Amino acid sequence: MQAYRLLGTANLPLERDSIVSQLVLTGWNLLIHSEDEDVLKKGRIQLNLQGEGTLLLDASFKGKPEDISELVSCFDKHSGHYALDLFGDSARLVRRFIK
After folding, report:
1. How far is the C-alpha of 52 from the C-alpha of 70, rounded, in Å?
2. What pLDDT shows up at residue 81?
3. What are the contacts of 38-46 at 24+ separation with CB within 8 A?
4. Tell me, what's the pLDDT at 49?
5. Beta partners for residue 48, in sequence order
6. Which value, to the nearest 10 degrees, does the dihedral of the CA atoms of residues 88, 81, 72, 29 take?
7. What is the DSSP letter of 20?
8. pLDDT at 38
9. C-beta neighbour count of 30 within 10 angstroms
10. Is 68 helix (H, G, I), strand (E, B) or coil?
11. Residue partners of 34: CB distance under 8 A and separation at least 6
12. 5, 49, 47, 32: CA torsion to nearest 10
């Protein structure tokens, strides 16, 4: 299995707490909740969310690029914009998600 990292930003019309709540309802486990950051995990994917308004996303996992598709589809359900880059070993850009 290859290690991947997803980095980017999302501008969604929801507060971070609402996004975290929706992710928890879809099976994500909330590991850390603080004023500035939330850390969630589902399967092999660990996701860090930071900020308000413009969210900073940082996810890491071992597997296949398709494993992140479910997370990206969660953001597709909402109006707003995101720019996410999926990196493989040696910081090689594997896929870019933009809405």
Report:
1. 22
2. 93
3. 42/71, 43/67, 45/71
4. 97
5. 39, 58
6. 100
7. H
8. 98
9. 13
10. helix
11. none
12. 140
Percent of the chain with pLDDT over 90: 78
Closest by Cα among 78, 97, 71, 81 to 11:
81
Q: Residues 14-38: pLDDT tens digits?
A: 899 999 999 999 999 999 999 999 9
Residue 5, burial from CB neighbour count under 10 angstroms (0-12, 13-18, 19+): middle
Question: Cα separations (Å) of 35 from 23, 32, 51, 52, 53?
Answer: 18, 10, 9, 10, 14
Q: Which of 11, 2, 6, 21 is nearest to 72 (CA)?
A: 6
Say if residue 48 is exposed, middle or buried (CB neighbours under 10 Å; 0-12, 13-18, 19+): middle
Question: What contacts 42, CB < 8 A, 6 or more positions away?
Answer: 23, 27, 28, 29, 71
Which among 14, 45, 6, 16 is positioned nearest to 29, based on CA atoms? 45
The confidence score (pLDDT) of residue 68 equals: 92
